[in-house]
Structure formats: structure tokens, C-alpha cells
Amino acid sequence: MHPLKTPISGKSDRITRRGSSIVNSTEHTPLSRDFVYSLHHNFKSCLLYGKNNVGVANGEHPAVKGYLSLHKSYEGVISLRWTPNQLMHASSQPSSATGKESEQQWLWKQALSIDMEDIIYIHLHQRDDSSPSTLTLVNCDGVQCPPLQMTAGQHSLVFLTSLEAGLAPTHRLDPPLWGGPGKEKSLPRLRKRTSCAVGSGAMLDYVFRIVRIGGGEFLAESCQQDDKSPSPTTSQRTRARWKS
Fold it and tell me: Rounded mean pLDDT of 221-226?
């Protein structure tokens, strides 16, 4: 855990990471808009991808729209961040409204900060390019992160293309995205169509793994691999990590 200090109105605010979320540990201090923007745009990392109005549904709460970004540090570490729109647009001026502070505290608990080196599976669910899509990241413990809900279009493909470019040259997606010199990337053809009857179409499911190029699928730390491939939807603790 690496706390971040935020100067607001002459005071230091402390942001800590709990699980896959970053939360504000100061209960009655207003948020700084400059600090929120610095989470997504700063000189310490290169912005690989950014998109607004990406929905995240955490638990039984309705989906919240927010800004999604993908970063690669100069040390090669890739991170994913998502912040609710209300925090992106929050005023840096002090607010005495208890209800407003309570809402911001709840929103900070929804914010995501994920180290992609902890992720080994990415699930993509989409009917077609004219339909919304959902991306679900699964970490090495089999725990699913809150699904990222993209609007209709090729937004998930653009995200995966940016991620694949950021993973190079040491890692890649398996299966890789299709494409050649001078050609746009496209989703791989499904060997086995996984469909769920939804309306008049079928939901297409893709499962991508993050694998190391030129040396085994994962860098495992003292883990016993079963004969069968580990299921990304179980809680089996594989302790597998990929490193840049």
C-alpha cells in the first residue's frame, strides 16, 4: 500500500488503496479537482488509453459512469484507473454540506486503481459492434474486478488494442488480436461460439490471457499447477504473476 498525499486548502489528505480500490481516508476534507486529474494525467507515466462515460456496477448499486484510463510507467508497469465522473468534475472549493461529503466518500470507494501485473484473464462480452460491451478483469486469485461497461461501438477493441501495445515487447494477449502491417486490429475468430440467447442475437464471449513472450505462460511463484488449466471464475489461489 502506497499512500498518496494531497494538499487541499493547506492540509494534507491521504489516499490509500484497499483491494482494487483507492479510498479517501480523511472523512471531512473536500476533494481537489487537480489531484483527481493527476491520477489520470501525470509526468510519471504514459497515457495508453482514455475514455469517459465507462460504467462500473459494484455490488447491488446501479452502474456509475466514470473516466477510464490505462497507463504505463517508465519502469514498464501498466495500471488501470477508473474515477466516477462526479469526482472528475468535483469542485476544489470547500463544501460544508455533510450530504455532499458523504456522497464523495462513497464515490471514492467505487474508484478503481488496478495493477495489470495482477491480472491474468480478461473477459469480453459483446453481441456485436452496435451493442454495448462488458470487460471483466480476473486477478491471479480468481477474483473478478467490477465489470467495465462500454457503450455501443468498438470501444472494448480499442481498449484491448491499447493494452496489447502497452504489453509489448515482453508480453501479449492470448489469443492475440488479428491484424497485419497497415491493417486495423480486430477480434480473433472464435473457435467455439459461446452464445447466450439475448433478444434476437447471441452474446459472444472472449477470454484473453496475459502471457509472457518467449518463455512460459506465466511467471509462477511457488505454485503447483494442476493438469487442468485453472478456471478464472474460481477462487483457486494460483499465485501466478506476470512481470514486465
Answer: 37
The single-letter code of the amino acid at 54 is V
Higher pLDDT: 96 or 18? It is 96
Helix (H, G, I), strand (E, B) or coil at 133: strand
**22 pLDDT above the threshold of 60:** no
Residue 111 sits in a domain whose CATH number is 2.30.29.230
The parent domain of residue 50 ranges over 4-241
pLDDT in tens, 182-222: 778 888 876 544 555 444 566 789 999 999 987 554 443 33
Q: Residue 233: is its pLDDT beyond 90?
A: no
125, 203 Cβ separation under 8 angstroms: yes
Please classify residue 214 by burial: count the beta carbons closer than 10 Å to its beta carbon, then call 0-12 exposed, 13-18 middle and 19+ buried.
exposed
Report d(CA 24, CA 28) in Å as an integer: 10
Residue type, 128: D
Write out the H or E segment, with its range, that includes residue 67: strand 64-73
Q: How many structural domains are present in the chain?
A: 1
Rounded-to-integer distance, Cα 45 and Cα 35, Å: 15
Could you tell me how far CA 225 lies from the centroid of its own chain?
A: 26
